[in-house]
Design brief:
three-stranded antiparallel beta sheet, alpha+beta, 5 strands, Nuclear Transport Factor 2, Chain: A, about 220 residues, about 15% strand, about 45% helix, 9 helices
Length: about 220
């Protein structure tokens, strides 16, 4: 889709995003409200709701601990009378099956990531700030995930996705014998990780992009 083309309700994605963000600023935390446009957007464009005929009728913003002054979770009230976190931004760029698998792989290595930060509480790059994140220096996590997903047959993918239940709050997990999971865990035995502060993580990513651009030129 070309930039600026209508995406929903006569608006392009950029205009729609700005409209919804401004709309949500009108409501306080825990205030329940209705919005037909957002309800329709989620029902028609959300990667899970659209294929399961789910349309939220009401919404609310819920305080998310540790997210800062302006951080919150966005929840919708569904026909089951159940509140559920639902991302309107994922309606603009819906998740694919591969995205769902990659999320599961990322969750599967959180213990490895946490262990790295525990060993290096101070940023390994600048040596000054606390290590808030872990950078997959080589290979990047996206590359590990891509290769891991390539190990899956169509049957593997179908079986994995059949386990996915959006209603559950718990993170989606792949079966223990999933070839993608086994590949990812094995790759982390030799992957170069670096516990870093947020600024150094961004700096590392910028340096890698520049290096790739230089090689491609």
């Amino acid at each position: 889709m070309e930039r600026g083309n209508p995406f929903f309700a006569g608006m392009a994605k950029t205009a729609l995003k700005a409209y919804i963000r401004n709309r949500l600023k009108e409501y306080a935390i825990d205030e329940v409200f209705e919005d037909e446009l957002i309800s329709d957007l989620i029902a028609q464009k959300h990667y899970f709701c659209s294929v399961n005929a789910l349309r939220p009728s009401h919404f609310r913003k819920r305080f998310r601990p540790g997210s800062g002054e302006n951080g919150y979770d966005f929840e919708g009230l569904f026909p089951t009378a159940q509140w559920r976190k639902v991302s309107w931004t994922q309606c603009l760029d819906p998740k694919t099956r591969e995205d769902i698998i990659e999320d599961a792989l990322r969750n599967a290595v959180q213990s490895i990531v946490s262990a790295r930060k525990a060993v290096f509480p101070t940023c390994e790059k600048c040596g000054q700030k606390p290590s808030a994140e872990v950078d997959h220096v080589d290979p990047e996590f996206a590359e590990i995930a891509r290769q891991a997903i390539d190990t899956m047959s169509q049957q593997d993918m179908d079986e994995a996705i059949s386990r996915f239940d959006w209603w559950k709050e718990e993170a989606f997990e792949l079966p223990a014998n999933s070839p993608a999971l086994l590949y990812t865990l094995d790759a982390h035995k030799t992957a170069q990780l670096q516990a870093v502060c947020k600024e150094c993580h961004l700096s590392n990513a910028k340096e890698r992009r520049a290096a790739r651009k230089k090689v491609g030129s």
